[in-house]
Every structure is written in structure tokens, then in C-alpha cells.
Structure to design on (238 residues):
């Protein structure tokens, strides 16, 4: 777990980003029941399908190994969502976890469609072992895009994942446009993260691997403390 000093930095970061969200007209809440999450996501207009790794009917998440963040507007309508879960990859690596489809299904033989496929060629994915925090299902409503809300959500999830798990790696599978528009908030990016086909959910994607180490995540909070979280504060005035 993070040492006390870093826990304090995380708490400060959460407070600053919560204030930034409030100034954008958004109230942030955290949840742990993924049945509730799926229900909210399915009822949210324009949001795409929730990946099976966040669906408890396909990949149950143990208590303490997953959470989600929801942003509500002034009318309590959903303005943003993001989910996170912890993978224990002590005896494997993230590339193999993707290729085997175990990243998406607790039991691929039972739940995966016969034509489901995931190819991962990103070199760093093979080096990602131990406690791997995976972030995904990020969605921001159109009228809140371009206002810094996406970065607020991702930085809140980074803080919560660090505080809960102190992971060895933090990662996501992202579309190329997030890199082109510089809205992805991780330090490293590689093509070939997941050439993916999930038939049941009509998901066909060719995504990049976005990642950073646990030590880099820890250093980010240290830098935030030294600069009084000036970067996060600037988001609140966007």
C-alpha cells in the first residue's frame, strides 16, 4: 500500500480534481457494484457496449478488486463513466492475458464466442506482470467533451487505483484518436495493444497499449505535491 506521505498526496489530488469536476458542473461518485454499473451504462444514451471484463455475468470482480467512477450533471444525468479492475498476473503477463481472452472472460471456454480473438503484439505487454491495474470503458457525454472532463476522470481513477492497490503497472487499451488528440494521460504508448474481435458485443477494434509503471505513478503524485497540483488546478479553469 502507499506510504502515508503518498496517501496524503493522493487525497489532495482527489480533492483538487473533485473541485475541478464541480466547476465543470459535474458531481463525481465512486461505486463498487458492477451489476449496478452495467445497468447504468446500458441506460446511458450514446454510450457503446460495456466490455465483458467489466460485466459480472462474464467476468466477476472480487470485492476490493474493482470500482467505477460516475460523473453526474446538475440534473443527475450521466455525463461521464470510467471503470477499473485489478488483475493478478503473478504467473503470466498482460499480453498472454489478452491473447487467452482471460482479460475479458473469467472462463473463455464457457463465455467467449468461438470467433472471438485478441492479438497483442505490443512488446511492453509481455513485461507487465504482478499487480496490473486495468482502466477502461471510459466515456464522456458529447456536451462535456473538450472541457478537460476526460482528464479529470482519468486522473481520479489513477489516484484511486494507486491508493487501493499500489499496482506494479497501470494500463489501458485505447483508440489511436486519443493519442492524436493528446487526451490520453499515461506516459507510454505502443501500437498492437489489442487487435480485438468480440462477436457478442459487436466489438472490432485495433487499439494501442497505454501504460506506466507503479513507480512512475508514484512519482507523478510526488511531482503534484511539489507543484501544488498546478496542472490539476488549471483544469478547473478550462
Amino acid at each position: 500500500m502507499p506510504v502515508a506521505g503518498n496517501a496524503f498526496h493522493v487525497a489532495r489530488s482527489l480533492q483538487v480534481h473533485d473541485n475541478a469536476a464541480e466547476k465543470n458542473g459535474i458531481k463525481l461518485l465512486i461505486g463498487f457494484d458492477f451489476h449496478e454499473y452495467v445497468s447504468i451504462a446500458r441506460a446511458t444514451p450514446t454510450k457503446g457496449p460495456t466490455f465483458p471484463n467489466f460485466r459480472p455475468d462474464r467476468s466477476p470482480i472480487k470485492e476490493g478488486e474493482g470500482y467505477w467512477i460516475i460523473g453526474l450533471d446538475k440534473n443527475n444525468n450521466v455525463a461521464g463513466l470510467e471503470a477499473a479492475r485489478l488483475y493478478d498476473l503473478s504467473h503470466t503477463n498482460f499480453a498472454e492475458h489478452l491473447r487467452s481472452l482471460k482479460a475479458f472472460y473469467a472462463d473463455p471456454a464457457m463465455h467467449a464466442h468461438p470467433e472471438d480473438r485478441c492479438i497483442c503484439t505490443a512488446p511492453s505487454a509481455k513485461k507487465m506482470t504482478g499487480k496490473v491495474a486495468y482502466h477502461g470503458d471510459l466515456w464522456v457525454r458529447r456536451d462535456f467533451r473538450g472541457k478537460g472532463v476526460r482528464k479529470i476522470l482519468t486522473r481520479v481513477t489513477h489516484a484511486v487505483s494507486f491508493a487501493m492497490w499500489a499496482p506494479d503497472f497501470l494500463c489501458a487499451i485505447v483508440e489511436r484518436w486519443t493519442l492524436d488528440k493528446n487526451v490520453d494521460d499515461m506516459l507510454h504508448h505502443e501500437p498492437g495493444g489489442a487487435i480485438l474481435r468480440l462477436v457478442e458485443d459487436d466489438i472490432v477494434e485495433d487499439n494501442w497499449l497505454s501504460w506506466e509503471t507503479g513507480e512512475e505513478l508514484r512519482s507523478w503524485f510526488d511531482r503534484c505535491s511539489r507543484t501544488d497540483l498546478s496542472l490539476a488546478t488549471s483544469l478547473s479553469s478550462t
Notes: Residues 4-236 form a domain with the Aminopeptidase fold (CATH 3.40.630.30). Helices lie at 4-23, 34-42, 94-99, 108-111, 149-165, 176-180, 214-226, 230-236. The chain is about 35% helix and 30% strand. The chain has one domain: 4-236.
